[in-house]
Amino acid sequence: MNQPSPPILIIGSYVSPYVRKLLACLAIKGLAYTIDPITPFYGNDEFSRLSPLRRIPVLVQGDLALSDSSVICAWLDEAYPDQPPLLPQGSSADRARARWLEEFADSRMGEVFIWDLFYQKVVHPAVWGEPGDATRITHAIDTAIPEVLDYLEAELPDDGFLFGTIGLADIAIATFFPNARFGGYEVDAQRWPKTAAFVARCLAHPAFAALTPFEQAQIAVSPQQRRDALLAAGAPLSETSYGLKTPRKGVMTL
């Protein structure tokens, strides 16, 4: 008889695009989890042991601890092959393209949407009590984000998803746009119509839409009020937390 898998714990904030990506993939797989919704700046020493770069998300299942959203999502497909796949099941070329689009999203979109925009406009003031870098924000809005959107406009489908049903590549791209909105940036649907429509389709999917109430509950309060707000919203929180009351910078803080 097969033994049931240990429960899955996710460490990471609901408003992180990388956590959102993982949670959407868990929804596609139909896998339950509990979540410790901390931002990495509040992680304690045990969090640092689990995530040496002090990045989120982290997945803990029994004795297994994994960090990095791409590593975790690849593991999900291997560990749960009977659940819907995250990568396209057609050609090897499709799978390679899906992996490339995930990498483009994780690296380039993460750089411009998160570190140059969202971190500077939202996280830096909220966590460190200081204004973000106005030069980085301006460059992101005027130059870097339009370059990303020009690329996506040429790559995304006119309708539907990239490889038929929604999968990892779609999720990896769409996950950055709620953060852009939190940072005051909206995609110009006249300039980038395919991208705007694609993002709207993805974010309307139940895998994303189910997370929206928790993101809104979290973004509306201070880090110290987060757990109470999320419990009130019905989030599946873990009983214990790896969080501290005060933030500290890590090796990857920009």
Give an overview in words:
This protein has helices at residues 17-29, 45-50, 69-79, 92-128, 134-155, 168-174, 177-182, 193-204, 206-209, 212-219, 226-233; strands spanning 8-11, 34-36, 58-61, 64-67. With 254 residues, the protein is mainly alpha-helical. The chain has 2 domains: 8-85 and 213-233, 3-Layer(aba) Sandwich (Glutaredoxin); 92-207, Glutathione S-transferase Yfyf (Class Pi), Chain A, domain 2 (Up-down Bundle). Helix 1 links the parallel strand 1 (8-11) and strand 2 (34-36). The protein is globular, with a radius of gyration of 18 Å.
Short description:
With 254 residues, the protein is mostly helical. The protein folds into 2 domains: 8-85 and 213-233, Glutaredoxin (3-Layer(aba) Sandwich), CATH 3.40.30; 92-207, Up-down Bundle (Glutathione S-transferase Yfyf (Class Pi), Chain A, domain 2).
Major sheet characteristics: 4 strands, mixed
Question: Number of DSSP strands?
Answer: 4
Radius of gyration: 18 Å
CATH topology heading of the largest domain: Glutathione S-transferase Yfyf (Class Pi), Chain A, domain 2
Please indicate the percent range of residues in DSSP E strands (runs of 2 or more).
5-15%
Strand order of the largest sheet: 2-1-3-4
Contiguous runs where pLDDT drops below 50 for at least 5 residues: none
As an assembly, this protein is single chain
